[in-house]
Design goal:
Number of domains: 1
Largest sheet: 9 strands, mixed
Structural class: alpha/beta
Distance between the termini: 18 Å
Number of strands: 13
Shape: globular
Strand order of the largest sheet: 1-2-5-7-6-8-9-10-11
CATH topology: Rossmann fold
Length: 274
């Protein structure tokens, strides 16, 4: 575990010098700027940045893509990466802010920030070239804005994902009111986790998505955590001004443990272990 933490910390610190790569066929891990032909920002194409960590060994492993929220990469990404790695699941943490020159402070306007599922498309094509990654066992998890991206990614088809079918979609405290469930939505497993005290999302809207999904034969589960705020799995408490109000986030070990227990059970069920 100590080695995993140290590796993640080093990779995070080195994110400013990501190596530009078109392929991972040599089995490399680390921080990369990867090619994504459909990723743009303000009229120019960008190369997203991703951090790949794999469990020790040489066997093929499942992988979870990790999508940060409006606060940018940080504690949640690295802590959830550790969580999956300790369970034999690789991770690829996408930074969709840095390549677009975005640095977020404590005040921001959500509408001005990107939520590019195109970066997910490019990541899948990139990751499937790695000899240890099992392309048949890939999923993604996102937090807040990243959770919105996870829900939006459910509408991507195999031909848009280099022939890959994502098996698992996990969204923590997304804005379910802006999500859409229809016949295009994936029939693979999805999990939404949200608290009753969320200032930004709506538990009732997420439950409505589950209801809509059931009517269309979609596997969308919503876990509502009584008393949990937005960002309940953060490293510290904070109140953020958004330009449209404020969001209070209070870390809670109990809510985080409940969420992780459900995520672990579902990940093992859907993706399996190495």
């Amino acid at each position: 575990m100590a080695r995993i933490l140290a590796a993640i910390t080093v990779v995070f610190l080195l994110s400013a010098c990501a190596a530009k790569r078109a392929s991972l066929s040599d089995g490399a891990t680390g921080v990369f700027a990867y090619q994504s032909p459909t990723s743009y920002w303000e009229g120019r194409r960008v190369d997203p940045i991703g951090t790949l960590d794999l469990p020790e060994g040489d066997e093929k492993v499942p992988v979870m893509l990790i999508l940060h929220g409006s606060g940018g990469p940080g504690y949640r990404d690295s802590s959830w990466s550790r969580f999956f790695l300790e369970r034999g699941i690789g991770t690829f943490r996408i930074d969709y802010f840095k390549p677009r020159g975005i640095s977020v402070g404590r005040r921001f306007t959500p509408a001005a920030l990107p939520a590019p599922i195109q970066d997910v498309q490019g990541a899948i094509a990139f990751l499937k070239t790695h000899p240890r990654i099992d392309a048949d066992r890939m999923g993604l998890i996102g937090f807040s804005r990243g959770g919105n991206m996870a829900l939006s990614s459910m509408r991507l088809k195999e031909y848009e994902l280099s022939g890959v079918t994502l098996k698992l979609f996990i969204a923590l405290y997304p804005s379910c009111g802006i999500a859409t469930v229809d016949r295009r939505t994936s029939t693979e497993q999805a999990l939404i986790i949200i608290g009753t005290e969320d200032d930004f999302g709506s538990a009732s809207a997420c439950l409505e998505l589950t209801k809509q999904g059931e009517a269309l034969g979609k596997s969308i589960e919503t876990l509502v955590l009584d008393g949990a705020t937005h960002g309940f799995d953060r490293g510290r408490a904070v109140t953020v001004r958004t330009g449209q109000g404020s969001i209070t986030m209070i870390p809670d070990a109990g809510h985080t443990a409940t969420a992780r227990a459900r995520v672990e059970a579902l990940a093992v069920e859907v993706l399996g272990r190495p």
